[in-house]
Amino acid sequence: MQKKPTEAAAALAEMKRVFGDRFYVELQRHGLSSETLAEGGLVEWAYANDTPLVATNDVYYAKAAQAKSHDALLCISDGAFTGQEDRRRVTGEHWFKSAEAMRELFADLPEACDNTIQIARRCAFLVKTHKPILPRFDTGAGRSEDDELAHQAREGLKARLEKNQAYAPEEDYWSRLEWEVGIIQQMGFPGYFLIVADFIKWAKLHDIPVGPGRGSGAGSLVAWSLTITDLDPLRFGLLFERFLNPERVSMPDFDIDFCQERREEVIDYVQDHYGKDRVAQIITFGTLQARAVLRDVGRVLQMPLGQVDRLAKMVPANPANPVTLAQAIDLEPRLREARDAEPAVKALLETALELEGLYRNASTHAAGIVIGDRPLTELVPLYQDPRSTIPASQFNMKWVEPAGLVKFDFLGLKTLTVLDRAKSYLERRGAAQDWGLLPLDDPKTYELMASGQTVGVFQLESQGMRDTLRKMRCGSIEEITALISLYRPGPMEMIDTYIDRKFGRAEVDYLHPSLKEVLTETYGVIIYQEQVMKIAQILAGYSLGEADLLRRAMGKKKKEEMDFQRLRFVKGASEKSVPEAQSGSIFDLVAKFAGYGFNKSHAAAYALISFQTGWLKANHPVEFFAASMSLDLSNTDKLAVFYQDCRRFEVPVLAPDINRSSADFDVSWKDGQGSVLYALGAIRNVGLEAMKHVIEVRETGGPFSDIFDFLERVDPRAVNKRALEGLARAGAFDSIHPNRRQLFEQADVLIAYCQSVAAERASSQVSLFGADQAAAARPRLKSMEPWAGPDKLDQELYAVGFYLSGHPLEELTPALKRKRVTFVAEAQGLAEAGHEAFQMAGVVRRRQERASARTGEKFAFVTFSDPTGEFECLFPPEQLRRCREVLEVGTSVLVKVRAKAADGEVRFFGDDASRMDVLLDDAQIGLRVILSAQSADAEALKARLDRARAQGKGGEVWLQATLGGRTEVEIKLPGRYRLDAALRGALKSAPGVVMLEDA
Fold first, then answer.
1. Where is average pLDDT lowest: 175-189, 486-500, 844-858?
2. At CA 40, angle to CA 36 and CA 45, rounded to 5?
3. Which of 84, 348, 398, 979 has its CA 20 to 30 A from that of 897?
């Protein structure tokens, strides 16, 4: 209106012509000069053209006081700082203004405020919901969907019964199948079953691993017949009504697990089959969580990174039950102290509290896919995630179904990928397995579970689960199913009852003689929702459809519905001659358990995967570890746990080797002994794709003969300086160049050479000696001593994430023994024999602080590493306060512990902790350095010893040499020395040193 008033007026006139009386001229007053300049012309045009005005305010936050927090949010979104001049800003007028505030702001134009009501009335509209809209399934044979479902189900069951053992008379299978087919047809869902069966059959045909089932769908015999699931519902006593209830019409919902590495292939197939414009993911919104919002706000306020990191770490990290920032401030006195002492921290916390929980970004649901019978733009708005090739609905999970779209869950399950990877390893040595045909009575599998050695076993690897396995000693797939169902908040309190009844330490109570068949499997404990349904059917005459409604009512605990159901239950039971007092008592008991009863179909399906991974670990541990570690390639903490488990199972883990290792973890067999080959791609800073390139080069041209051969053949765009340093630190070049330090510290020179060779190769320049020779001159590397013991291990720790070739405390073992230190391998046996107090030692690997739910005080789980393994120690609040400064990651510590042994498991509790370097001084008696007189370098020795000279405490050093024949000379050096691992490693690498002895 200011610069081109004629064109603006023409545009307004055109819109007025198109929209008629639905066209308004909007006025806003946020304090912007552009608004002020344009307003006069807009008002003049509106009056001249009989067009109503409307006053609005762009609302970005609720209250005026939140302007600063919104400004910080803008900076988080834009990657800017609040103190930055050249950035996006808005005025402080974008709050949700009341009618009074708006009328005061537009006092000169009251009609502009009046018209907002008129527009609101015109916009009053209720969006219509749709019934499920599914694409029509192409039967390809001219059959209807009803007939096609019946045909495929019958053929499928015939094939299943030919291949699998029947656990009931065959007529039971056939009658159940026909009944289910009839219900599915009656409810109008044959198309849904056929669509799901189609993409699962496609996946299996293309060797994409598919899970045996998930959720209540495993209760359907039709699903088993169509190969949607791999669990015989009659074998496990699963109920169809738990999945699809004819007395409560709702969409069936199959959740399908696929191998996580190939899940996208199945989605691509669905897109190709139904049309790319008819398939979409579902949007989801990421929110600002407590720790993340502190880091984000701290960054935009330009607070010191270390300070913000310390504050963020004071917020407990518990993904399963996230702690809000307000809760963290209440629980953590250090947060309150920092807030009260520093205005900057107070401002940080105030802003973070206002932003916590707001949407931070849009993303897509991990599993949900919708398929329409028409282009989805006709049903829902779409959003294109820049990280995906598939659009997403702008309606989230809650709203896509009312819009008529049917959700299909394509989940990626890592364990299926582990099993598939292990299968390929086994095939290489002629031991291929069909996971669906494993003997479910395998003794070795149940022995493994009874021992609690189930790290990496699906659903059974947490510490609490392993403790329970030792007590329960599962002996069947049914007992694994029960454990998975019981080990949850709520029913967990019944675990001891279940175990005591199993082993005859408590009497089994079946509540009523007629319920013995339902409750025998679980020793009278009501664990499953299906049991609740069967109890209602047997005792009170419910149909299974009605019983499913009862189960839902008990889960929701609505008083009116529960009162109605109690009357119905007692009345039905009385008709079966059950006394009212007894049936009422049973109803109350069942209602209590039903609140946390578990879906048996889901538990049984997952128990089967638990058994499969347990069988793999018990029977083929090498392949199990290689496959499991490959799927946690970038998680060094998890790799360290697997490495310790490998040691327990006596499975060697071979160090990374540029000429033997693969990009992923691999398996090596020699003379009947299997080993895990450490993955090059698991080394920090190298990158999996870069290592795949290295392996491709090696497989094409043969093993690398030396470091220069390596540099002349690889692409420097893949193997950069950081990758070369990582490989050197980890010892991956030891077989072709054992001096790790030389490669690491001269990585610039080496990469420059690699780049020059690559440039020459690209320009087709070759040397006079032939195309296989590099034209560039190989650089001469500076001579330097290799890293000594501790330095070498520190570098390896950085690159690998744990100690692989040795341990920093190995050199200190004699001194530690003089301090009566017990290593964990020995301590566990002693604790089981009744010993309780120990002096232990270790390098702090991890420290996890948590807050007590009862008192709010902090306690910590600290993981230590010693030369024989790792151990976890619980430090209660008082001990943690006393020892917190000592228990820093990477510190070598002496720990006083109490040990408790129960059910085959030893727990350690920390009483005190001290830095090892201080307490070892008085344990250092002396060190004898045995030399070869011919090759000893006196200057090198003196330099190393001078660096370790101690004031006061320390050990004495003797030099011993053979001068000729058998004449030995021994010299005691003046002064005392810190005989730590650093000195020992340095002396070992000195010229002429034959060996070291404790004196």
1. 844-858
2. 140
3. 979
C-alpha distances out from residue 515 to 580, 587, 590, 596, 803, Å: 16, 13, 12, 20, 56
Could you tell me which residues are beta bridge partners of residue 997?
Answer: 928
Residues 675 and 600 placed together within one structural domain of the fold:
no
Q: Which domain does 795 fall in, by range?
A: 620-800
State whether 448 and 582 are in the same domain.
yes
d(CA 946, CA 434): 65
Predicted confidence band of residue 922 (pLDDT cuts 50, 70, 90): low
Cβ atoms within 10 Å, residue 414? 15
pLDDT at 952: 57
pLDDT, residue 768, reads: 47
Q: Is residue 747 part of a domain?
A: yes
Distance CA 715, CA 700 (A): 14
Q: Based on C-alpha coordinates, what's the Rg of the chain?
A: 36
Residues 394 and 461 in one domain: no
**Residue entry with tokens 């996971």:** 435
**Is 768 a member of any domain?**
yes
Question: Rounded to a whole number, what is the largest CA-CA distance in the chain?
Answer: 120
Please check whether residues 230 and 207 belong to one and the same domain: yes
Name the more confident of 930 and 234. Answer: 234
Say if residue 163 is in the same domain as residue 89: no
What are 333's two structure tokens? 């006195």
Cβ pair 385, 174 in contact under 8 A = no
C-alpha angle 714/717/722, rounded to 5°? 90
Burial class (CB within 10 angstroms; exposed 0-12, middle 13-18, buried 19+) of 165? exposed
406-421 average pLDDT score: 93
Encoding tokens for residue 238? 């699963």
Whether residue 281 has pLDDT greater than 60: yes
DSSP E strands in 167-307: the ranges are 255-259, 279-287
The 3-state DSSP class for residue 21 equals helix
Tell me the average pLDDT of the chain: 89
Q: Give the type of residue at 215.
A: G
pLDDT in tens, 79-111: 899 988 889 999 999 999 999 999 999 999 999
Task: Answer yes or no: do 904 and 767 share one domain.
Answer: no
Burial of 34-64, coded b for 16+ CB within 10 Å and e otherwise, reads: eeeebbeebbebbeeeebbbbbbbeebbeee
Name the residue with tokens 């039905």.
572
Record the pTM.
0.81
Buried b (16+ CB within 10 A) or exposed e, 540-568: bbbebbbbbbbbebbeeeeeeebeebbeb
Check if the beta carbon of residue 93 is closer than 8 Å to that of residue 29. Answer: yes
